[in-house]
Each structure stands twice: as structure tokens, then as C-alpha cells.
Amino acid sequence: MSHVPPDKLTADRLAGRAPDANDWAPEPGSGDGSLTEDPSYRAPLVLNNRSVHEITEIVCGYAEKSPGRWWLPVFGLASSLAGMAQIMILYLIITGVGVWGLNNQVDWAWDITNFVFWIGIGHAGTLISAILCLFKQQWRTAVNRAAEAMTIFAVICAGIFPGIHVGRAWMAWFLAPVPNSNWIWPNFRSPLLWDVFAVSTYATVSLLFWFMGLIPDHATLRDRADLRLRQNPHQARLPFTPFKPDVLRVFIYGLLALGWRNSSRHWMRYEKAYILLAGLSTPLVLSVHSIVSFDFATSILPGWHTTIFPPYFVAGAVFGGFAMVLFLLIPARELFPNMKDLLTLRHLENMSKILLVTGMLVGFAYAMEFFIAWYGGNDFEYYVFAYNRALPTWLHEDGAPYWWAYWTMITCNVFSPQVFWIKALRRNPVVIWLVALAVTIGMWFERFVIIVTSLHRAFLPGEWHMFYPTWVDILTFVGSCGIFLTLFLLFLRFMPIFPIAEIKAILPEADPHGPGHGHDDHGNGHSTNEGEGH
Amino acid sequence: MGILGFPSKVDHGFRTPDGGVIHGVMAEFGSAAEIYHAAEKLRDAGFQKWDVFSPFPIHGIDEAMGIKRTILPWIVACGAITGVSAALLMQWWMSAVDYPIVVQGKPYDAWEPFVPITFELGVLFSAFSALIGMLALNGLPRWNHPLFKSDRFLRVSDDAFVVVIEAGDPKFQGAETVDMLQGLGASDVELVEE
Fold it and tell me: What's the total number of domains in chain A?
């Protein structure tokens, strides 16, 4: 087994020390080679004619070697922010929710905004891994592992906020279906309880799906470490520990791989289980954000009490989630060697198109809310949309104090993705990254607008009250971004960040019947079988 | 395979020159296409205890090997029915039997508000049965396997394609089976000890 770092392999090729990858060069006008317009053949999903072995080397290399000098400072910053979030949470719990800017009117603010924001981020991961799998969209293999990881980390961040916003966090067990001290059970007619079940089911099923997808890839990492140990049993130990790195790898990856041995009989059941989980996750992901929207839609508060909420929330979640996938993976693509062979411009373009579509779905939902507020003839609802959200204070004396939040949302979510109508812009990673950043900001503001602008001026003017975040609000949210980033950086450092086995399965040489890989003398598999007899 | 996936200690009489019990013969093939054709021939030769090991699922290999369809979907269906029933029973019993409380003047046992949680628990139980069922049918997890002794086998998760015919197969004939595998185009054949 060769153990060549992937960047060295490429360096050797460029220096002529290693054979070039079958003289591969992108076609003129096709960008990196993936943006071909020729309908007579499929654009390559993996560039540079990578072989099965090279895929292993590249992806395992990310988990086995240091990612470079950038990782530790970024990780240090992210984990400091994560630590700050824990201090903020501790401060909240030992002091009380008064440290936040909440008041008697705006009793949900950044806490639930952050909850809905993070849970929405997760939806792209499930969409990529489940729905694109059912539709047999093979390009999903470039992004599904990272997107699934992102899902789980986002759901972890989401789970923090409902737990701590209840004030008495030690009463959080009231969420579980166990009787309280008066032997009263939770109220199964409350969407808040549905939400508990939806989010915890979503977290669990996403984790199962991710874990199952990782089994063969952990087996690959385990086997490579085992082979290295057999070839060189006298490895240097890790500093300050009695462990050799590959001994630890064999043990940890081996545990996670559950003894997987790449048997075809196992693969067959594995693929069936994968399809079944994809089929289960698809309605699940649609249900989760629908149920989150029920938290609002089943109330009678104008601005929340609308039937459009479930599809509107789901579209927004997919929109925000894809933006986060692009936001994270475009820098990763620059930082990790050879990642551009696996995550091509065409993948980015496809995701930009999804951003454009879901952005317009969300824009349609915003417009429809306004239309119904006018057409429905409900004065209170009309007031919320016109005077609590859209109308700037400098246009009308009763205008919305939060108009800037509403128009930030519209600019980021509806206008910014429109640049993707232009082909050159949706193929430019810098432009895509900037739009993804705008959409991530816009989707946070969407939840802020829905929650705070509806609450701060409800039915009685005597109850009207503004919301201003405190420093604890702000640092808790920033800290939750740190938690998310810390987990994602650990994932990038230690885990297979691409689905190795799935990428191998979409290479041309994986096809047992495909022509053009040295078996032309055999021709079609079935005809060989019949022609030679038994 | 014995109880809980541990190999049974039945001695089939095939031994290495050193006297070790043979687990089987392992033959390496050059590509997915080659091993696919070899699998068709081995299937037609009537072997039972054999397997193809590949770094990724080879499309159509289950047919080439003659593997039966898995019963996994039925296991998942049982999981789904269990989850749905448990959810309905739980909500009905807690809301209508054990401690009924009037909420919004609705009947205690109205089924409509129970739908979301029923759906979620149905999915949850199905997902667990898909993963656990798949692992159980595959005899996983397990700590070790005789095949892991082979360096060649460890390269399967990278880019090697191997066929293993176990010595416990009724059609296994030692050297003749090795010759047959070489005749099918195997680049290397080795014995694996139990």
C-alpha cells in the first residue's frame, strides 16, 4: 500500500515523476472540466480521472494528516466562542432569563429565533442525503457527508435554546412524556410537545443515517491504519501519551466501523437499508419544519396565524441550509488539497440553482402573506404586515420600528439570489459564497422578523413594547456559532468528509458493464455469460 | 456461522501444511467487471459459502452471485407498525384514560392532535429497525474475522476486489478450487487460516 500524501501525488505528477492521470485536461470552455454543455456525454462527477485508489488516498488523507496551518488558529477561535457560549448559558441559568432582553410582550426573541435558524440549517443535509438519493442525483455524493454532519451539528445548536429559554432549565424534563409531581401528563394537544418529538426524532434519525453512511468509510480508515501498523510496528508515539497514532485509529475507527468487511452480501442489505432510511427521512424532514411552524401557526397572534407557514418554513429551511453548505464548503474546497476534483464547479452551480429556486419560493411566500393580509380583510393581520414589518418609520409616523430587519430579510433572501440568473455568476465560487453569506444572514432575520415584529405590537396598544438584545443575547448566539464551527472543524480534521465508497461507486470504472476500461474483449457482461456457456 | 456470528468450530478437514485450519481461499481480481463475471461462474458452479468483497457495492452483483432479496423491508414495516401503535396507545392512555384533562373543550380521545407524534414515532422506530435490522442480518457488529489476517483483504476497503470461498462449502475441494479461481482470471490466490 502506498502512503503518499495526496498533494505530493499531484506534485509528483506535475513534476513528471509520476504518470499523469491519463493525460486528462478539461475541455476548453468547460471551466474546471465539469461545466460541459455537450449533451452527448455526462459531465464528470470526479475530475482528473481519479482512480478508486486515488479517491481513498485523497479522502483518507484529510482525516490522517494535518489539514495545514490554518486549522489550529481557526479551531482555537471557534472553541473559545463555544466556551463563551457555555459561560453565557451558565450565567443565564444561575441568574435567570432576565439577563436576556425578553419582556412580557416579546417573550420569545433571539432564543427562539436562534432555535428556528439552526434547525432550519439542518434541513439541507437531510434533503441532500435523502431526497436527492431517492431521485438518484449522483452529484449528491460530493456534498452529502459534509451536509449530513452540518445537519447534526446544527440540530445540536438548535437543541440548546428551547432547553435554556424555559427559565428554570432544571424543569426541562417536563418536555418528556413523564407525569409531573401532580401525576399530570404533558399536553399532547400542544404543538410545543409535537415539536419536542419532531426535533428529537429528527436529531436521532439524522444521526443514524450519518452513522450508517460512515460505517464503510470508517472501515477504510481502520484497514489503512492496520496495514501501516503491520508494515511498521515501531511507530512513534503521540506526544505525552502511550499511544501510537495508528493503534488509536484502528481502535476508534474499528469500533465505529462495527467490523464491516465490504462483503457483497452485506452491501446488498446496506444499500436496502440506505434507501429505506432515505425514504423515511424524506417525509420526516418535511414534517419537522412543518411542526416547528405549528408552534406559531396554531396560535391566534396576527402574523403567526397563517396556513402558509408549513410549506413556507420548509422552503426557507432548505434555502438556508443550502446556503450554509456552500458557505462552509467553498472555503474548504480552497483549503484542502485536491478537493476541487471531488467538489467541482458543476456541484456549486447545481446548488446555486437550488438557492435560486428556493429563494423564489420563499419570496413567493413573503408576497402571499402580504396578499392574504390584505385580501383576508382582517384588520389586525393587515396591521402587522403593513405597520409592524414593511413600512419604514421615515415614510409613515406609525411605521414599523423593525422595518430595517424586514428589508434586510427581503434584500438578502429574495434579491441576492437573483444574481444566479447569470451563468457566469452562478459558476463563480466567490459570488456564490457572498450570496450564501447574505442568505444565511437573511434567514436569521426572517425568523427574527416573524417572531419579534409579530409579538412587539399585538392586539392592545397598551401592551406594545420594543425588544432590544442584551450582551448576553448576542454572545449566546455568537457562541452557538462557535459550537457549530468547533464541531464542524473536528469533523473536517478526523472524519471521512466525503462518502468514499459512494464516490467510488459513481466512477466510470465501477460499472461492471461499462465499456472503455480495458475489458472491451469481454463486451457486455450478460452476453459473455451466455456466449461462453457453463 | 454459529451463534451470534461467531464462526463455528466444525473441522472440515482442510488444513495448511503447518496444520492450521483453513478458513477459505481468497482470490483477487483486477476490477469490478472481472469479479462480476467470476461471480456469475461461481454462482453457476453451485457454491454456497462464498462471497465477493469490493470497496463499493457493485451494481448488479447480487444477481451475479444469486443472492436472495433481503427481508429487511419487512423488519422495517414491523418497526413502523410498532412505533405507530405505541404512539397512539401512549397518547390515548395518557390523555384519555390515566389523567383526562379538558383542553379547549375537545373530546379526550380525539385522534387528530395525536397525528404528528404518531408519525414521528413511526419514523423513529422504522429508522432504528432499518439500521439494527441491517446489522443483525449481516451478523454485525463483531470484533474480528479470520479474513482480517490477510493484508490483501485489508486493501479491499481501498481498491482491491476479492472472492473468498470458505472451506466449509460443500463444493470446496482444496487445490482444485484454487485452480478454478485461477482459471477464472484471479491475479492472486491465497489461503486464509481460521
Answer: 2
pLDDT at A3 over 50: no
> Does residue A89 contact residue A164 with C-beta atoms inside 8 Å?
yes
C-alpha A514/C-alpha A225 separation (Å) is 32
Asked whether residue A522 is assigned to any structural domain, the reply reads: no
CA nearest to A257 within chain B: B141
A38 and A140 within one domain? no
Backbone angles phi, psi at A460, to 5 degrees: -100, 120
Asked if A46 and A341 touch (Cβ cutoff 8 Å), the reply is yes
Per the prediction, chain A carries an average pLDDT of 88
- Residues A176, A46 share a domain: no
Nearest to A228 by CA among B154, B117, B181, B53: B154
Q: Which residues contact B121 (CB under 8 A, 6 or more apart)?
A: A197, A201, B83, B84, B86, B87
- Report residue A313 as a C-alpha cell: 418554513
Flag whether B15 is in a domain: no
DSSP class of residue A510?
A: G
Residue A530 lies in a domain: no
Instruction: Tell me the residue type at A422.
Output: I
Report chain B residues whose CB lies below 8 A from the CB of A189.
Answer: 95, 103-104, 106, 113
Domain identity same for A56 and A80: no
Residues of B within 8 A of A211 (CB-CB) are 131
Q: A452 lies in which domain range?
A: 70-513
- Has residue A271 got a pLDDT over 50? yes
Cα(A97)–Cα(A305) distance, integer angstroms: 26
Amino acid at A113: T
Task: Tell whether B60 is covered by a domain.
Answer: no
Domain count, chain B: 2
- Nearest CA-CA partner of A114 in A292, A354, A283: A292
Q: Which of B40, B62, B124 is opposite residue A529, by nearest beta carbon?
A: B40
Q: What percent of chain A has pLDDT over 70?
A: 91
| pLDDT of res. A128 | 82
**Is a pLDDT exceeding 90 seen at residue A277?**
yes
**Do A42 and A76 sit in the same domain of this protein?**
no
Domain that holds residue B132: 72-137
Q: What is the pLDDT of residues B139-188, one digit of tens each?
A: 999 999 999 999 999 999 999 999 999 998 888 888 889 999 999 999 99
Task: Report which of A396, A398, A395, A414 is spatially closest to residue A406, judged by C-alpha positions.
Answer: A414
Which of A56, A209, A258 has the CB atom closest to B159's CB atom? A56
Region B95-108 average pLDDT: 91
What ipTM describes this predicted complex? 0.93
B115 and B76 fall within a common domain: yes
In a domain, B148, yes or no: no
Are residues B162 and B131 located together in one domain of the fold? no
Contact A297, A104 (CB under 8 A): no
Same domain, B123 and B79: yes
Same-domain status, A54 and A96: no
Instruction: Report how far apart, in Å, the C-alpha atoms of A367 and of each of A406, A408, A412 are.
Output: 13, 15, 15
